[in-house]
């Protein structure tokens, strides 16, 4: 494949301690740990979007602009299948940035062609943990209503299961529409919780299940509150939470909150609290 001048990752081996967080964060499988250090498997697998940068606690990964082989999505998909990883995380990653090029990606609503001049560093997947700040200063005042959000990212697709904000957390699993529909979402539902969002109708529920199960296995999640709309398709989030708890083997209570189409809280079902994984 012809080379082009573009942005691509650079790994400082002196700073790298081989923790592997970048490997987990890379949806393209472009990184692996070799002899205790992170290595770029192939330039053709690096899309230049920078999800790995925000996950490196040592600051060992940066971007540089140099001559490199172009990102090859078709080769990346083949590589993911070869190493036993689902390409769905890659499709979600590309869709999050509105880019793509593979036929399967187009079927998932991706636009063809990168359209970003060879790659850029996007902060959409950068892990931010503000829990300590919130405990000291309270909610962040933005406008007339303070925000209760204490971490980033919030999309379940993008959350790293090893992110620090998941440890010892009360997890709020919210359908995408709920925060727009229920006006008191922040003070009533989000306060003191770690947020992950998704849509069981339009997103890959199997990928959600794998991600949520891994979150529960790797972290001491204290509770899960599922916030859903009253529409039937939203019940998939409740089933997802139950299935993830059962698959993880953990005993985590699951509470369900239902929001009406007019924006009212119509049910907060503490009687439907589930303790699975016995």
The oligomerization state is single chain
Name the strands of the widest sheet in spatial order: 10-9-11-12-13
Within the CATH hierarchy, at the fold level, what is the topology of the largest domain? Rossmann fold
The largest sheet is:
5 strands, mixed
Indicate the mean pLDDT: 81
Helix content: 25-40%
Tell me what the structure shows.
With 278 residues, the protein is an alpha/beta fold. It has two domains: 3-124, Alpha-Beta Plaits (2-Layer Sandwich), CATH 3.30.70; 127-275, 3-Layer(aba) Sandwich (Rossmann fold). The chain has nine helices and 13 strands. The chain has helices spanning 21-25, 73-82, 88-96, 103-107, 131-137, 178-181, 185-190, 205-218, 235-248, and strands spanning 3-11, 31-34, 37-40, 61-69, 128-129, 140-142, 145-147, 151-152, 170-175, 194-198, 223-229, 253-259, 265-275. The strands form five sheets. Strands 10-9-11-12-13 form a five-stranded mixed beta sheet. A two-stranded antiparallel ribbon has the order 1-4. Strands 2-3 form a two-stranded antiparallel ribbon. A hairpin with a 5-residue loop joins β12 and β13. It is elongated and about 60 Å long. The N and C termini lie far apart (53 Å).
């Amino acid at each position: 494949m012809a080379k082009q001048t573009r942005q691509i990752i650079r790994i400082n081996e002196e700073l790298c301690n081989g923790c592997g967080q970048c490997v987990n964060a890379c949806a393209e499988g472009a990184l692996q740990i070799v002899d205790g250090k992170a290595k770029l498997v192939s330039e053709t697998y690096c899309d230049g979007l920078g999800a790995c940068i925000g996950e490196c606690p040592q600051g060992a990964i940066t971007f540089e602009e140099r001559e490199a082989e172009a990102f090859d999505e078709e080769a990346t998909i083949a590589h993911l299948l070869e190493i036993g990883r689902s390409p769905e995380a890659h499709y979600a990653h590309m869709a999050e940035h509105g880019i793509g090029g593979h036929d399967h990606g187009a079927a998932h609503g991706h636009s063809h062609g990168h359209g970003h001049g060879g790659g850029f560093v996007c902060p959409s997947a950068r892990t931010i943990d503000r829990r300590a700040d919130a405990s000291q200063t309270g909610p962040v005042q933005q406008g007339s209503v303070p925000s209760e959000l204490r971490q980033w990212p919030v999309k379940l697709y993008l959350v790293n299961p090893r992110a620090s904000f998941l440890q010892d957390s009360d997890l709020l699993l919210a359908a995408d529409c709920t925060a727009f529909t229920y006006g008191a979402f922040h003070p009533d539902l989000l306060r003191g919780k770690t947020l992950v969002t998704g849509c069981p109708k339009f997103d890959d529920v199997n990928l959600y299940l794998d991600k949520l199960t891994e979150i529960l296995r790797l972290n001491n999640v204290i509770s899960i509150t599922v916030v859903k709309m009253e529409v039937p398709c939203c019940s998939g989030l409740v089933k997802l939470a139950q299935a993830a708890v059962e698959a993880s083997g953990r005993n985590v209570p699951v509470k369900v909150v239902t929001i009406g189409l007019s924006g009212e809280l119509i049910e907060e079902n503490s009687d439907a609290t589930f303790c699975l994984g016995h």
